[in-house]
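DM between two lab members

TW: hey, do you still have the Molybdopterin molybdenumtransferase entry open?
JB: yeah, one sec
JB: this one, 408 aa:
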Amino acid sequence: MSADVNTPVGWEQARELAYQAGLAASAGAERIPLTAGDGRTLAEPLRALTALPAFPTSSIDGWAVRGTGPWRPVGRVLAGGTPPPLTEDGVCVEIATGAMVPDGAAALIRVEESVTGADGRVTGTPRPMPEWRLPGEEAELGEELLPAGAAVDPAVIGVAATCGYETLTVRPEPRAALLVFGDELLTAGPPGAGRVRDSLGPQVPAWLRRYGATITAVSGPVKDTLDAHLDAIRSALDTADLVCTTGGTMHGPVDHLHPALAELGAEYLVNTVGVRPGFPMLLARVPGPDGRPRFLAGLPGNPQSAVIALISLVAPLLAGLAGRPFTSDLPLVEAAVPVPGRGRDTHLALAALDPTGRTAAPVGHVGSAMLRGLANAHGFVVVRPGVKVAAGDLVPFLPLPLLPGERA
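TW: and the structure you got?
JB:
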């Protein structure tokens, strides 16, 4: 197991390494009810089971007519019915929005643009464009509507339902566990007397869920001994594809994470990343008892640094495990004020967007141990190594995650 803390991996390279590791380990599929699909990932393409629409469908309430008017009504067509064809000129049927247009109909006339005479016959002028949807107008039979790897959201569920699906074939949700390290942590009450309140145990599971994981366990604070670390990690790996730990990523007197990984035969994928805040983070691959690899992400103990580690390593790893596409291309926003660089490291500067979403301004209270700035931010301005951002420059922006299934 190689680990050189003196040569951190570049931030963008670290994200790609994490994604590729997750993608290589992704496997399997499961069929779930359509209504349970929100936030999941398609394991196979979603194809049209029939042409959409499957039959010519009226877009209006009115009359389906044949030949020239005036027209003699011979019936009514409601949504859900199968009408007989119109076989002679000079006849019409009343038709409802969404109803099947009968064979033989030449045009539709809106009810508000028609007149029914004393003799019961209908007159009116059809609009130049046909007012019905043709079969296959939205999709042809067998057409791919969404590729494998697409995220399922309410709109996707609606498309699948329209096609006639009752179930979806999706990737299994990555399972994640959290271990909180640190004897100095309190789990209740205000901080004091040399001890601080644990803020990562309550928040990290929510971030993991937003990145598509299901939570199997949250444990801690784990005692600051090697045996306690080993026991906790082994137990978490029994049920999780990914174990996140908080703290202990350096080599201090009570930092037992690296010795524990050595004991477990883990392989470092990333050991420290050239990003500030967040420098001492890691991602390791751990042999699983069933032959499938598991992963451990070591998050720094400082809260903002831990969130940056989640964004940098855990988010792309989970995207890979879920079989979703991942790109390092980020949207560009305009910097409202200058944003300093961090020398050879990438600087992730907490920032809030203006109401247009086009301009970002750094927020205050952004120390690595602070969370107030994070609570007021929409994401991070990304300042690449060796770059100084001036006001008005276009800069990459990494947004904080949405809820599963939400659209940006």
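TW: got it. DSSP finds seven helices and 27 strands in the chain. The CA atoms of residues 354 and 360 lie 6 Å apart.
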